[in-house]
Specification:
alpha+beta, 345 residues, 4-stranded mixed sheet, single chain, L-amino peptidase D-ALA esterase/amidase, EC 3.4.11.19, ArgJ-like_dom_sf, 13 strands, D-aminopeptidase
Length: 345
């Protein structure tokens, strides 16, 4: 597997990637996959775990930006209202949202038996894209046990990309796509911070993809309307306020636009941005808590990182995914094969 950077697609920028060029470069963040393969089944679950502790008791602050809301994700409304997340984040196919929701609820209750009885209920956070072009989505193949397996597999360090986990059956711009990730380091006032992004790429019309060098790869495939989706999960250790988190999330749209996306009528394009800095206690010891906040004079670095990592993460998803046949006999080619055939001297 070669990444977009190894293919020479990512020009040297003002911000450098982290050690793994992945969302897991943010300290404490882990990613796990569960891939399902079978007769007509090509799907899975990907888990993003913001920190290794009890997320219900220590809630990372977060914001959601819905670029185009053609989607069936769970938990977004409460995140938008309260500005926190209290479970791991699961990515999967559209018809597997309920199975993943159940898994998150059961895990939260197991760790906190008071949930729903002596304290508040829990807000499971699940995102989805429709992988029905390759996977038989009506098979309802994903179970709560599969979601649990993705959570159990979550690790820090390198992240497997391409047609893996939730990305198994996803396509983008007529090519095979899936899971991709990237990161940037930010130096502010002699301190180093990180912003990392993971995407579930399943969007973009055939012929619309624009590479950073200006080339427009077009697979040998019939044109089709833009009816896909993309989920963008951003993590950072920057101390950002609620308003700032949403502003950073919004810049994920800039990264998608650089690729040629226009967020069609039938596209579900959602960004979640969370910070590991200054989490919110479920049972605070004081009625007043203090939180640090980055000065807006420095937030352009985070904006740039959000756009760059989103763009590169999608390209990594495309570069890592092999050619895969669809359910209707159509072949979704690999961008890597196109790059080999159209290499720049």
């Amino acid at each position: 597997m070669q990444t977009a950077r190894q293919w020479g697609l990512i020009p040297k920028g003002r911000l450098e990637p982290g050690a793994e060029n992945a969302i897991t470069d943010v300290p404490g963040v882990a990613v796990g996959h569960r891939s399902l393969r079978g007769e007509g089944v090509f799907t899975g679950v990907t888990a993003v775990v913001p920190h290794p502790g009890d997320l219900f008791r220590v809630k990372p602050r977060a914001a959601v930006e819905v670029i185009n809301g053609f989607g069936k994700s769970a938990g977004l409304m409460q995140v938008a209202e309260l500005g926190t997340i209290e479970t791991p984040i699961l990515l999967t196919n559209t018809f597997a949202v309920s199975a993943c929701t159940e898994a998150l609820i059961r895990r939260a209750i197991a760790a906190n038996p008071a949930i729903g009885r002596k304290t508040s209920t829990v807000n499971p956070l699940v995102f989805e894209c429709n992988d029905g072009a390759i996977n038989d989505i009506q098979a309802l193949a994903v179970t709560p046990a599969d979601a649990g397996a993705a959570l159990d597999a979550a690790r820090t360090g390198p992240v497997e990309q391409g047609a893996v986990g939730a990305g198994s059956g996803m396509t983008a711009f007529g090519f095979k796509a899936g899971i991709g990730t990237a990161s940037r380091t930010l130096r502010i006032a002699r301190r180093d911070f990180t912003l990392g992004t993971l995407v579930l790429a399943n969007f973009g019309a055939v012929g619309d993809l624009v590479l950073p060098d200006g080339r427009r790869p077009e697979p040998r495939a019939p044109a089709s309307p833009e009816r896909g989706s993309v989920i963008v999960v951003m993590a950072t250790d920057l101390p950002l306020g609620d308003r700032q988190l949403q502003r950073v999330a919004r810049r994920g749209g800039a990264g998608l636009a650089r690729l040629g996306a226009f967020w069609g009528n039938g596209s579900g394009d959602v960004v979640l941005c969370f910070t590991t800095a200054d989490p919110v206690e479920h049972a605070p010891s004081s009625p007043v808590t203090m939180q640090q906040r980055l000065s807006d004079d420095h937030i352009d670095l985070a904006f740039r990182a959000a756009a760059e990592t989103t763009q590169e993460a999608v390209l990594n998803a495309l570069c890592a995914a092999p050619a895969t046949p669809g359910r209707n006999g159509r072949l979704y080619p690999a961008l890597a094969d196109w790059l080999k055939e159209n290499s720049v001297p």
